[in-house]
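Regression test case RT-17, inverse folding.

Input:
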């Protein structure tokens, strides 16, 4: 039988177990209580203070970013003077001082700034370029394409594109020879340069101190003359007489039709040389004394009608025959102009 003390201990144990179970049940919150507890954690005074500081910093840096972006836009759109840009190009070595000064005096800067202002205001920019601006663009591009691209980029593409300039160049005088504009530019450049210009055709030998005369490769030069003569068909000599390629072709046709050659090596390859331009013999055998003599025979002895005006052609061939022999000479035992230049034939060559 349990004693009275044991019964009391058992009652206390049961009471303690029930109270513990009730406390555990009461300690588990519902979903609504959990939401309330979470929001209360994020809305604590410390969290609110930190949130306000973050919002303030974000707004502060957003304003700073907008200010920097505006500064960049203003910097890109600022109107710089043409003189400032040309000075920058001169310091970079892209333009020379004389070229920079000449560009400033051309007077196209006003038109350039007008186009720039219209472009910045989103106004319609005329497609036609002012004559002064065209002269400025052509001159700047002629001096330095790199400088032209630099100025065009800094002035918001207000200068014409390089393809437009190329189309303008197509309208200049297309006559034969070097353009007068290029010669005038070279003349001005030479007058304003500080370099020592060598206008001599010879220089002293470093040891013997004798004059060393330089000249171009005669074989290559003769091929160039042949190409010019054959492609142009007609040349003018110093007396404005016609030097005609047709005299060469007519001589070849007569020799082929008659089946004999008048002491020369003229063949079809000499006439149709386009696929064999590098062969020197095809050029030297045209500019030869034998071809000149054959033309003279057809004109004077046979008195053929097609050769009645070939005197200038005969003289042209003879001159280049002798000139090639003089420049291509190397043997002292040859005769005439083929003999190497020396004191005995110097007077003859002169």
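Golden output:
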């Amino acid at each position: 039988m349990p004693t009275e003390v044991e019964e009391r201990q058992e009652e206390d144990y049961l009471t303690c177990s029930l109270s513990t179970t009730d406390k555990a049940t009461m300690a588990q919150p519902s979903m609504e209580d959990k939401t309330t507890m979470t929001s209360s954690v994020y809305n604590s005074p410390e969290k609110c203070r930190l949130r306000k500081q973050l919002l303030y910093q974000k707004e502060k840096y957003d304003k700073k970013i907008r200010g920097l972006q505006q500064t960049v836009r203003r910097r890109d759109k600022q109107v710089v003077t043409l003189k400032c840009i040309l000075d920058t190009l001169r310091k970079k070595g892209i333009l020379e001082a004389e070229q920079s000064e000449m560009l400033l005096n051309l007077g196209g800067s006003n038109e350039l700034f007008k186009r720039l202002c219209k472009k910045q205001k989103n106004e319609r920019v005329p497609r036609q370029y002012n004559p002064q601006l065209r002269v400025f663009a052509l001159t700047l591009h002629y001096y330095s394409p790199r400088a032209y691209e630099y100025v065009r980029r800094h002035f918001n593409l207000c200068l014409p594109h390089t393809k437009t300039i190329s189309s303008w160049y197509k309208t200049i005088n297309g006559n034969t020879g070097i353009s007068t504009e290029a010669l005038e530019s070279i003349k001005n450049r030479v007058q304003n340069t500080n370099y020592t210009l060598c206008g001599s055709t010879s220089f002293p030998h470093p040891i013997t101190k004798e004059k060393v005369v330089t000249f171009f490769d005669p074989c290559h030069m003769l091929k160039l003359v042949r190409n010019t003569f054959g492609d142009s068909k007609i040349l003018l000599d110093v007396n404005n007489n016609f030097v005609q390629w047709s005299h060469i072709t007519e001589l070849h046709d007569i020799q082929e039709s008659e089946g004999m050659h008048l002491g020369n090596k003229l063949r079809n390859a000499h006439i149709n040389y386009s696929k064999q331009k590098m062969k020197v013999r095809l050029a030297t055998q045209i500019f030869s004394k034998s071809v000149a003599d054959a033309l003279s025979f057809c004109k004077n002895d046979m008195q053929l009608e097609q050769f009645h005006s070939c005197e200038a052609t005969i003289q042209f061939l003879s001159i280049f025959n002798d000139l090639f022999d003089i420049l291509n000479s190397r043997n002292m035992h040859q005769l005439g102009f083929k003999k190497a230049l020396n004191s005995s034939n110097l007077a003859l060559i002169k």
